[in-house]
Amino acid sequence: MSSTTEAPVAPPTMCAWVRPRRGPASSALELATGYPTPAVPTGSSPDVLIRVSHVSLQFSSEMLMKTLPNLPLTGPWVPEMELSGEVVAAGENAPAELHDLGSHVIAFLNVPSAVLMGHGVLAEYVRLPGCQVILIDGGVDMASASGINCSGSTALKMIRTAGVREGHTVLVNGASGSVGSVLVQLCKLRGAHVVGVASGGNEAMVRGLGVDEFIDYRKHDPLPAYLAHQYGDKPFDFVLDCVGTQALFANSPAYLKANGALINIGALEGICVSTRNVLLNSWLPTWLGGVPRRYIMFSTPPARDDAVYLARLVEEGRLRIPVDSVFDMEDALRAYERIATKRARGKVVVKVHNG
């Protein structure tokens, strides 16, 4: 049944976090209580109106809030790009499975809408094209489901780019983080031998994800020296770095196969230093001091096909999205503080609506 025949059930205004000025979340974000609710999709619209349940925060959000200006004519800048929720209304041209009102869904924004335009999802209701909305079983935890899209798509692209398969040995640096925790599980599903790196306090969590070996980077500092000693005679096929540690690549010939690669998605050392490192790592010839190993870094916008695949894995119990903490909508600033510690074990989530 299409929601175009139903009376609107969303209130005319809602709560949404907006950024009226540049700066860190603590000073830049404000909770707007009279923000206009998106219009109900009607007629031949392909859009879906969603009552937001949970929003998973991105580590990069704070950096964007500090650097990107508010563009003229775009309206208030609302952060975040992935969510879980339930269908309130759907236009006639939305996917057929999204016409059942109350169905549980996960959804994501495309990068231009989320980053450049600031049309984010940290709000009580959002309206999105149906191609960015995926049905999910009602029994899946909604806090966990909200984090499927971004971390899952990134992890999936990392293992596909590397070509991880049965018989490979891979190192996952940052195995307790939002991407690393998914990456470990996907590598194990492909039959790889996984060595996970995290702090000792996260060992139980990381072992619970299925790693074959665990390394406490605090205990074995400097980490590259330990890897060279421990794995020099049995080097890794791939190093998957979710942290962005330059020393891990610079010293990689001691523990990474000559035909292997280091794939990095992290920027631990800051955006300027990381940008310089990417350029040097990717283009500096070996005869000028370049590291004789492949270095790969990329951005990974969410994709519908990836989200559908990952959602099915979650529904089947073959993949779980670890959740570090859940904060109420009014406490979203505390959620950003938690991410800023760089100690989160899995996703940091804001609960927008109860139920």
From TrEMBL:
<dbReference type="GO" id="GO:0016491">
    <property type="term" value="F:oxidoreductase activity"/>
</dbReference>
<protein>
    <recommendedName>
        <fullName>Enoyl reductase (ER) domain-containing protein</fullName>
    </recommendedName>
</protein>
<dbReference type="InterPro" id="IPR020843">
    <property type="entry name" value="ER"/>
</dbReference>
<feature type="domain" description="Enoyl reductase (ER)">
    <location>
        <begin position="25"/>
        <end position="350"/>
    </location>
</feature>
<dbReference type="InterPro" id="IPR036291">
    <property type="entry name" value="NAD(P)-bd_dom_sf"/>
</dbReference>
<dbReference type="Pfam" id="PF08240">
    <property type="entry name" value="ADH_N"/>
</dbReference>
<dbReference type="Pfam" id="PF13602">
    <property type="entry name" value="ADH_zinc_N_2"/>
</dbReference>
<dbReference type="InterPro" id="IPR011032">
    <property type="entry name" value="GroES-like_sf"/>
</dbReference>
<dbReference type="InterPro" id="IPR052585">
    <property type="entry name" value="Lipid_raft_assoc_Zn_ADH"/>
</dbReference>
<dbReference type="InterPro" id="IPR013154">
    <property type="entry name" value="ADH-like_N"/>
</dbReference>
